[in-house]
Task: inverse folding
């Protein structure tokens, strides 16, 4: 017996979970796995190295020299990164760093500015 909810559109019991969404294979309806009134982004809380909650659009500061994989460049301590975007995965911050370009960072190496 499946513990997944039935499809709200066609009442099919053959739904499956795909990431943060439920999917109905019969009518192709998709809906979020979050509880009603709560978006999937509200379930996951991303915190910086000091425990401060991060959100989209925040500014952060790098707290450790970070080597850039595949390059001889380094993101130096104290580099300020503006307008971050939170994403799913191991590297949970997507950003653009001046002089380096677009990259992803781990939240454990930044502090909220």
Result:
């Amino acid at each position: 017996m499946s513990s997944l909810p039935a499809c709200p559109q066609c009442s099919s019991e053959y739904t499956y979970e795909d990431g943060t969404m439920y999917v109905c294979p019969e009518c192709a309806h998709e809906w979020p796995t979050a509880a009603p009134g709560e978006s999937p982004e509200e379930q996951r809380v991303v915190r910086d190295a000091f425990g401060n909650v991060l959100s989209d659009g925040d500014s952060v500061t790098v707290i450790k020299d970070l080597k850039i994989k595949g390059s001889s460049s380094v993101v130096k301590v104290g580099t300020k990164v503006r307008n971050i975007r939170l994403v799913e995965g191991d590297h949970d911050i997507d950003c653009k760093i001046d002089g380096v370009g677009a990259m992803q960072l781990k939240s454990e190496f930044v502090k909220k500015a």
The chain is about 5% helix and 35% strand. Residues 75 and 107 are 14 Å apart (CA to CA). The domain at 59-112 is CATH 2.30.30.40 (SH3 type barrels.). The chain has two domains: 1-36, 59-112.
